[in-house]
Design a protein that fits this description.
The protein has 514 residues and is mainly β. The protein has a single domain, classed as Methylamine Dehydrogenase, Chain H (7 Propeller). The chain is built from 3 helices and 35 strands. Strands 1-34-30-29-28-27 form a 6-stranded antiparallel beta sheet. A 5-stranded antiparallel beta sheet has the order 23-24-25-26-35, with no helix packed on it. The chain has a 4-stranded antiparallel beta sheet with strand order 2-33-32-31, with no helix packed on it.
């Protein structure tokens, strides 16, 4: 089994299956309109001798790959084959390195001594990078598994952050401008419920949330169970993550026969249980500097999973478009949350914005049935993707001022790339996108708006372009439709986004059982 990163090995794929809709054609036509937009200059970040580069981990949400200074953190292939062929970071099994692009220069950040591959998870506002790297060793507790270590890049140097309790695996999920790094690490205590295990291969030992600062790694504890993972940290040093709340196997939840899990907020040395919406499965996706946490949770009975917002003591169900599934991806400093939610029947899902108590359907592009919102900046620009609900086609999108536009229509017609999924948009309006070429290779791409805030950009077309859009609509409230049992899969630090609209492992497993 190939795996791009340890994150992918243990990833929770909280998705609804999305079938190809026919009934949306009339809606697409009715909602279609035309607006004037700025062009965008396409900058291909390039590779290190291989054929692919990508914003990592591809297909997963809530990873900060672009900061406000225009520095982008990505993964780029080298021309060297990966020595661990069963745990490749890329599909073609070439080694992959963490890279940073800034002001036209691509810098190879390398890997830990002895290691072949590395990958980023987060770039801070001032350019600090956190992620993971191989160190060239094999885990003595799990034969054949390479050691993945939490890695921190600062001033061109890489640091192995170590592990807790003598463990051999760790991943750094996020870092703030103060150099506080958070993540998850295994120890050597056997754990049948370990979140570092996906049923195929993994690390059957306890996983603990950590904070690393000033050269020391601290165990943040748990909410009562054996495992926890820290996923995001804000500039104030507040940390959000997920934890088991006990050691009792539950018949339902994110997976049958594992303990219930809740999101937590760690603040000033104390871990706060953010609760759930009544079910046994709840997890975080993002935190802003006001301490508001975007999350998701099952309802009582664990038959539905809803987006949620925790705000200073209260966890609120943000609702869906009438389906049984929805999720959050990001939250901006004003408390606006984006993600996606299903309609009745769970065959169609749309990008969603929750702001000041109002849920807005961001729609889809003309000709597509499904969509997902990935990131929102302080100006309420939202990026993501619009897709055929069976995953056969997709396009990167920008939503702003009430309408969604295909980013492919805002770049030069001479571009050889198709923009597939937009992951991040900074407050300067620059956008990080995964694109693809005619041969199916993936390219990490930075889009620079040709506007008054970016004068003199070489190759920029500063004329306006008129592009077809799909208008927003305020979501109606539906009674809950027929429910279905949630799929059984381990939780981790990220929700998978339906930008590519492929059916999730969660629902595939459910279908097989039922």
């Amino acid at each position: 089994m190939n795996s791009k990163t340890w994150t992918c090995i243990i990833a929770l794929t909280l998705f609804a299956t999305l079938a190809k809709p026919l009934q949306l054609a009339a809606q697409d036509k009715a909602n279609s309109d035309h607006h004037d937009y700025h062009h965008y200059q396409v900058t291909d970040l390039g590779t290190l001798g291989g054929t692919n580069s990508f914003f990592d981990p591809p297909g997963y949400c809530c990873v900060a790959v672009l900061n406000g200074r225009g520095a982008a953190s990505a993964s780029a292939e080298t021309s060297t084959s990966d020595p661990f062929i069963n745990f490749c970071f890329a599909a073609d099994c070439l080694t992959v390195h963490e890279v940073v692009w800034k002001d036209g220069v691509l810098t190879d950040l390398g890997a830990l001594p002895g290691g072949a591959s590395s990958a980023p998870q987060w770039i801070s506002a001032n350019g600090l990078v956190a992620g993971l790297s191989e160190n060239g060793l094999t885990d003595p507790l799990v034969p054949g598994l390479p050691e993945f270590r939490a890695a921190f890049w600062q001033n061109g140097a890489i640091t192995d952050l170590g592990t807790l309790g003598g463990g051999f695996e760790a991943i750094a999920n996020a870092v703030n401008s103060r150099g506080q790094v958070v993540g998850m690490t295994t120890n050597t205590i056997p754990d049948p419920f370990s979140v570092a295990f996906d049923g195929n291969i993994g690390v059957p030992y306890q996983t603990r949330a950590f904070l690393w600062q000033n050269g020391e790694m601290q165990d943040l504890g748990t909410l009562g169970g054996p495992d926890a993972a820290a996923t995001v940290v804000n500039e104030r040093g507040q940390i959000a993550g997920n934890s088991y709340i006990n050691s009792t196997a539950n018949p339902t939840g994110c997976e049958a026969n594992i303990p219930a899990q809740h999101p937590f907020l760690w603040d000033k040395g104390k871990m706060i249980d953010l609760g759930s919406l009544g079910g046994n499965c709840a997890a975080t996706s993002a935190i802003n500097n006001r301490g508001q946490v975007a999350a998701g949770s099952t309802l009582p009975g664990d038959l539905e999973f809803h987006p949620a917002l925790w705000d200073h003591g209260t966890l609120t169900d943000l609702g869906t478009f009438g389906g049984t599934f929805g999720y959050t991806n990001w939250i901006n400093e004003k408390g606006a949350v984006v993600g996606a939610a299903n309609f009745p029947g769970d065959t169609i899902g749309h990008a969603a914005l929750w702001k000041k108590g109002v849920m807005t359907d961001l729609g889809t592009l003309p000709g597509y049935g499904c969509s997902s919102a990935q990131w929102i900046n302080s100006s309420d620009q939202i990026v993501g993707s619009s897709s055929a609900c069976d995953g056969s086609t997709n396009a990167a999108t920008l939503w702003h001022n009430g309408s969604m536009v295909d980013l492919n229509t805002l770049i030069s017609s001479n571009s050889t790339l198709h923009l597939d999924v937009a992951f991040d948009v900074n407050d300067r309006g620059e956008i990080a996108v995964n694109g693809s070429d005619a041969n199916g290779n993936t390219h990490a791409v930075l889009l620079i708006p040709c506007d008054e805030d970016h004068p003199g950009v070489e190759g920029c077309d500063y004329s306006m372009v008129q592009a077809a859009t799909s208008a927003q609509s305020v979501a109606p409230r539906y009674a809950h439709s027929e429910t279905r049992r949630l799929p059984q899969s381990r939780w981790t630090n990220r929700f998978r986004i339906p930008g590519l609209q492929s059916p999730s492992r969660w629902f595939e497993e459910t279908a097989q059982r039922n």
